[in-house]
């Protein structure tokens, strides 16, 4: 051990880019695109540092490495889920994937190639982002910059992401658009003697996919930030080594009070909206249903979600309050 009490501690672990996904593993369709399957989705983390063993333990640092990467892993999961959903709309239910592309129809090949291209780009972006972020965090550990500053930086970064989003009409705007699309579809179907119009269903499907894409960009990003803040808050509340001001922020975020309630309700509302929007997209994709049924569906959808913007307003107020507390904590620890 060195005169300053430090000794070499080697961190040797890995981070799976699928760690925040539901299956914790690669999607089945990767088998059909070997180049994607061969991408390095497991990120190795290895570094030997001179640290004070009274302050640092190998296991603690390795757990911290995952926590550092968790936000990016959640965003990766959200984007991958969207790619998988888009692919599922084309592939036959129960499709068994294989390396033999001769088993694919032209539509299936096009969809798989598109998904493979999107995953390749996604992997490149987040593999680098996670690697760089973890490397920087370990450098800060070795330089002994302190957990308090890292906690503040992570919290403020998440809040900045939240502040950059336009959440003013997160539910009402897409709900109104879905209502219009389904009402128009119902009118077009009713105008046909046989009550069937594949073209009308296709147009509605394309328009609904556009609504879904826009909601993913705002709604899911918002949800990722909320989940990160709740997770971070729970950890800060229990961290006895954190500055008192950070412990207090953690307790306020994780306690069953106004802040947690507002953020939890918004996250649940996003899940509900996403589920119902996905069901609406499937109806248009399948091309089955009467004119009156489509109008009723659209009206119900708009009525159900048109007034949900208050949950967004409450969560925005909660995050602003947290932001103020992080700024105060920053001054307390001179971050």
UniProtKB/TrEMBL annotation:
This is Uncharacterized protein. It comes from Pseudooceanicola batsensis (strain ATCC BAA-863 / DSM 15984 / KCTC 12145 / HTCC2597) (Oceanicola batsensis). The lineage of its organism: Bacteria, Pseudomonadati, Pseudomonadota, Alphaproteobacteria, Rhodobacterales.
